[in-house]
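Morning!

As promised:
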Amino acid sequence: MGEAILKRERVRDHLLELIETHPAGAPIPAERVLCQQLSVSRPTVRSAVEELVNTGLLVRQHGRGTFVNRAKITQEMVSGTGSMSLPQASGTWESRVLEHARIPAGARVGRRLHLSPAAEIHYIARLRLVDGEPMALEYLHVPAVLAPSLTLHDMESGDFYERLREHGVHVSEAVQSIEPTVTNESEASLLGVPVLAPALLFERLTTDAEGRHVEYVHSIYRGDRYRIVSRLTLGESPQSTVDVQARVGNDPF
Amino acid sequence: MGEAILKRERVRDHLLELIETHPAGAPIPAERVLCQQLSVSRPTVRSAVEELVNTGLLVRQHGRGTFVNRAKITQEMVSGTGSMSLPQASGTWESRVLEHARIPAGARVGRRLHLSPAAEIHYIARLRLVDGEPMALEYLHVPAVLAPSLTLHDMESGDFYERLREHGVHVSEAVQSIEPTVTNESEASLLGVPVLAPALLFERLTTDAEGRHVEYVHSIYRGDRYRIVSRLTLGESPQSTVDVQARVGNDPF
DNA sequence: GGTAGAAAGTGGCACAGACCACTTGCTCCG
DNA sequence: CGGAGCAAGTGGTCTGTGCCACTTTCTACC
């Protein structure tokens, strides 16, 4: 196509622009209007919109229009960062930063983030507490190139993903693995549990709309206070809602 | 479209047919060929193919063709129903029944199944193996009233949910909790791992379309061979595909 | 005989247009 | 004033067509 620039991508970028500048729930121009504005055909517009609908940034409503997705729920889910694993239990969460630095990715993290081992990343280790009680250890790794000006405060506050958005990073997907483990000595002392106590090891790799790896998070959750609850419904696709709950003594059943 | 039957869906179903009957890696007919065969336009074919590519069933290769994808990854997960927590890893699964009986529910199980402690249930303890290697212990509890004539063979075979359907039970939903634990002595010896080894404790409560509790399953998975992998996408609801994978050494990342 | 190039076949992108289904708001009639 | 119905606007589906980019194969030239 003349240049290596695809029309669909141009439209998509235009839409991302709109999404950023519009509040959640706001309608975007009608497809036929976008066609004129951008001088492309409707199928082209539709395919771009469809892409963003699939990634959850837009919502289409037949006969009404297309809207910026609130996505508050999952937003915060992915956002509070650790928060995918954030229980909405009663308690209030706080974070205590244990360590922070701008360091080379290293082999292991580099592989996960698709970076060279020498590439710089923001690294933060923090302890997450509920009502003052240690609940989890979280180790964040974010490529420095994605957010050169990221400050410690940014990463501490919930504005983290806001900052990333300002840099053109639109979180769209995360792959998370969970496995059982037991605490080692340092984890045990930081979490205030015995050594070799059951725990959950989370690894999360977050990706943005353009397929770039945005963050790698490694965290350890106390096994005596957490359980993962998922609600599985039979359907065409194996989808389910997942939810990590604080165990407050009540049964989910 | 006149009828509620979409052409795209007709094409999609045709493709699913092909996918099932063709081995992994086999090419499917060219798009232009499919157009003629099914009497639809190419964009229609393309959109159907695209859907299946997105779900990972097909792979397109520019200039070469479109092929059946190996790795049905999330596929059969929900399908096998009971298998919601079943990895479809390469190996072949088998079950070895350790114990089976028709007994009173008791307080704990009764509470979960909403039965009186005296109500009878089918109880089965079984060891699940992959390629002969012990992987998990599973304890099933099914109210006897739902399937009075249930035989041991029924519960051993995959026909279990088929039998339930014959009794008017249509599984529709399951709530599953997962938590980390460590093996006790009997679990350790049955699974062939050390005592106090990391493990995953699954509890699943399945409900049918009428809201009746159909089964309560308690199972222990080896922590050294399993991880839970979930793919989270931004959307209105925090939905995700969940998948328990056998750990074969490869990273999901 | 070997290699370069053409040809055929594939998926990738984009267009213009037509019609359907749903929602909303307005108008007109009672 | 109120409600039924129409009309406009929106996304949803589908067609038929054209051209591009990539891959493979086969041909024809050297």
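Residues 1-2, 30-32, 46, 49, 60-66 of chain B lie near DNA strand C (CB under 10 Å from a C1').

Hope this helps with the figure draft.
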